[in-house]
Amino acid sequence: MILSILLPLLAQVGPSVGVGAGGSLPQAPLEIPRKKSEAAQVAPPAPLSPAAQCRKLLAGNAAEAQAYAEKWLKDLKGSARVEPGQCLGMALAAQGQWDEAEAAFTEARELTPANEPANRARLGGMAGNALLAAGKAEAGLALLDRAHGEALGAGNPRLAGEISIDRARALVALKRDGDAATALATARTNAADNGQGWLLSATLSRRQGKLAEAQQQIQVAAQLMPLDPEVGLEAGVIAVLAGNDGAARRSWLSVVRAAPGSETARTAQSYLDQLGPDPAPSGR
After folding, report:
1. CATH code of the domain containing 94
2. What is the 3-state secondary structure of 190-242?
3. What percent helix, strand, coil does the chain show, rounded to 5?
4. pLDDT in tens, 185-224
5. DSSP string for 229-280
6. Last residue of a domain, one of 133, 163, 192
7. What is the pTM of this model?
8. CB 132 within 8 A of CB 167
9. How many domains would you assign to the chain?
C-alpha cells in the first residue's frame, strides 16, 4: 500500500504594529523561527519487494513483468526460484501463453519445500488452471486433483474448496457432470463465501434441470457478487426457464446496463431480443 504524505501547512504570522503605553515606539514584529518542512525529514519510501514490483508490472504491462521475472530468475537456484517462477507464470498467463505458464508454475511448485504443502497446492492449482485455459482439461484435472489433496493435507479446507471449483470446471469440460456436482458441493461447504462456486453450481443445476436448486444457488451468488454480469446473465436464464419472463428481462437489462459493450452484455441483449418487447412496461 502506498501511503500518501501530507505536507504540514506552516502557520504564517503577519506583522502587527501597536502603540505601547506612554506613546512608546511601535513594537517590532516578532521573528518567529520557522520549522523546516517536515517533508524534508521524512525518509524516502522503501523500495518495493521483488514480488510487489512484479504485481505492479502485471497491472500495467505483462510483457514487462515477464522480462522482470526472467531477470529475477537469473542465477537463482533451488527454492529461491519459487517466487520469481510464480511471477513468470502469472506474466505468461496474462499474455495467453498457457503452456509456458503451466511449465513455470509447475517448476515453482516442485521447488517449493515439502513442508509447505499449502504453497505447493496453490502453485499446482495455478498450473492446472493454465492447462484448463489451454483446452487440456484432462491434464489440468490431474494437476488440480493433486493440488486438492495437498491442500487437504495442509489442513486448509478453504484452499481445497477453491481448488474444487476449478476441478468442477475441468469435470464439466470432460462431460462428467455428476462428479462436477460433487466437487461443487465440496466447494460450497469449504469455501462458502466464494461466489464463483455458487454461480457454477447454479449453472450446472440448471443444465441438469434442477431449477429450484439453481434458483437458490444463483441467489447466493448474487448476494456474494452483486455486480458480476455473469450472475445476472445466469439468473435471467434460470428465470425464463422457470416461466418468469419479467424477472429474466430485468436480469438481462441489468447486465446490458452494467457491462455495456462486453461479450456478456451482447449475450444478454440477444436473449432480450428473443424474449421480445415487454408486454407490460412499467414506465419507471
Report:
1. 1.25.40.10
2. HCCCCHHHHHHHHHHHHHCCCHHHHHHHHHHHHHHCCCCHHHHHHHHHHHHHC
3. 70, 0, 30
4. 999 999 999 999 999 999 999 999 999 999 999 999 999 9
5. HHHHHHHHHHHHHTT-HHHHHHHHHHHHHHSTTSHHHHHHHHHHHHH-S-SS
6. 192
7. 0.80
8. no
9. 2
